[in-house]
Specification:
The chain is about 45% helix and about 20% strand. By secondary structure, the chain is an alpha+beta fold. Helix 8 packs antiparallel against helix 9, helix 10 runs parallel beside helix 11 and helix 11 packs antiparallel against helix 13. The structure holds adenosine-5'-diphosphate and magnesium ion.
Length: about 400
């Protein structure tokens, strides 16, 4: 059923389609055609590109907006694959030559050069169709693809960082955040002193209560400190200091830094380094920040005993670092929000981690992709352009 959750008159007729005479059949076809025209009108008014593809990537339906966005022609529908029209997409999704899409939700940022130079955000969602129909088409699953033009967003986010008014407010906020660092430091030191004093009072009946209060204060101070650090990191668009960098070695360093937290949580990390050394031009500190944030999210999504698998792959133009976890996954309804500042599903989360990741990856001429399946896990793909590829900046 297409239009609503309740069974419509149309559905009832469709259920008896075998027993209809010619006239009623003609009526039915008419009704279906009208319903279809109605839906097409809705889809064609949308500014977002909407497509339906098979798990092999063949385009089965496309609305008007998507024709314009990816330069689709009538002859492509039912024939061409999305992979052919958007070069690089298949590799980015990690699908082999003849491979099929898995039933997860995906998000990517794409740079299109044809028919116009623009940036597009793409979502792929499995089609929640009729299970009977799915069985009939012998396992050919379908997917809805949504394309939104984000060229303006990318331009304005670059410009707005330069706009004077915004930057003066940010500067003020950054100043305040920075000032908070000193009293926090002082509180930390005094808490340490209190802990030392407490240790001497071990016999006292008050000891346990006091100790746990001090512990709570310590945790809260750490949390405040984290919020401030993240805030400062998020608003301060530092110009990357590009150097020649081995992403694999940097990843190992970054994981080293998180080793004790990984161990505490009982989480293993496996790295498949691939065949080609991933050398790029990048800012080491910023790349470490990216790895840190992505790994942290993977950890936080998993239970003890979880596994993070990092796979490094490459093609002619890019390196792909895929961070796969066996965690909770991301629901379809959250997928479009995960990069929004302050969007978090965690108690005590800042909701800034992925926004920072996205900003840094953009500044490196790369992007972040997400593929996720609720209850199964998430793969975050970091795409870095190879050193020899010229960055194509917006005019
Ligand atoms: P925070 O971690 O502070 O919540 P982030 O920006 O890092 O903020 O992430 C935003 C949200 O995206 C998280 O709250 C979570 O819902 C979701 N998310 C990110 N990474 C993962 C992951 N690996 N598995 C499941 N959910 C994730
Ligand atoms: Mg996070």
């Amino acid at each position: 059923m297409i239009l609503g959750k309740k069974e419509s008159a149309l559905d009832r007729v469709l259920g008896q389609v075998d027993s209809l005479d010619e006239i009623n059949l003609a009526n039915l076809v008419n009704k279906l055609a009208r319903e279809r025209a109605f839906l097409e009108t809705i889809f064609n008014t949308s500014l977002e590109g909407i497509l339906v593809i098979t798990d092999g990537g063949v385009i089965e339906y496309a609305n008007v907006a998507s024709y314009k966005m990816i330069g689709l022609k009538d002859a492509d529908v039912g024939e061409s694959t999305l992979w052919r029209l958007i070069p690089g997409l298949r590799t980015s999704l990690g699908i082999e030559e003849e491979g099929r899409l898995e039933s997860s939700v995906s998000s990517r940022e794409l740079e299109l050069t044809y028919p116009e130079h623009r940036y597009v955000r793409l979502y792929i969602l499995p089609f929640e169709g009729d299970t009977e129909l799915e069985e009939e088409s012998a396992g050919e699953a379908r997917f809805v693809v949504i394309l939104s033009d984000i060229t303006a967003e990318k331009q304005s986010s670059e410009e707005s960082l330069e706009s004077e008014r915004v930057s003066s407010i940010l500067l003020l906020a950054a100043g305040v955040a920075h000032e908070l660092g000193n009293p926090l430091n002082s509180i930390t030191i005094h808490l340490q002193l209190m802990e030392r004093q407490l240790a001497k009072l071990e016999q006292s009946p008050q000891h346990d209560k006091l100790a746990s209060s001090v512990e709570v204060c310590r945790e809260e101070v750490t949390r405040l400190d984290g919020i401030i650090k993240n805030f400062l990191e998020a608003i301060r668009p530092q110009v990357p200091d590009f150097q020649t960098l081995d992403l694999y070695a940097t990843l190992e360093e970054s994981l080293e830094f998180q080793a004790s937290e990984l161990e505490d949580r009982g989480i293993q990390v496996e790295i498949d380094a691939g065949t080609e050394t991933p050398i790029v031009r990048a800012d080491k500190q910023q790349v470490k920040q990216v790895f840190f944030n992505v790994t942290k999210n993977a950890m936080e999504a998993m239970q003890p005993g979880g596994l993070i698998q990092v796979k490094i792959q490459s093609d002619e133009e890019r390196f792909y670092l895929r961070f796969g976890d066996s965690g909770t996954g991301i629901g379809q309804e959250h997928l479009s929000q995960v990069f929004q500042p302050y969007h978090t599903t965690k108690e005590g989360g800042t909701g800034l981690g992925l926004m920072i990741v996205q900003r840094i990856m953009r500044e490196h001429g790369g992007q972040v992709g997400i593929d996720s399946k609720e209850g199964v896990g998430t793969v975050v793909t970091l795409e870095f352009p190879k050193q020899n590829r010229k960055f194509r900046m917006l005019e």
